Amino acid sequence: MSMLKVEIDEQEVRNLYLERIEEKLKQVDAELVFWDSAELKRRTGMSWNTILKEFFYDERFPKYKVGRDWRFPAEETKQFLLTWLKEQPRH
């Protein structure tokens, strides 16, 4: 009777897992042309009141009112948020 021994490189499994997650996130990002306020809150992890207070009224922040709702172009909004974040004081 022969035994089969299997060794798993946990780091390699982790790397493959993270690559798959990144691919999936890119697919989701590619699917969204614009965000609504719920998506903006989810992406930033901020409440609507915090968004209003921190950057909503910044003239560089891309936003469009469609009827009663706000829409935010996904790519432009991501770029703005990264720029805005880098401008924040580090404590």
UniProtKB/TrEMBL annotation:
Query: What is this protein identified as?
Result: Group-specific protein
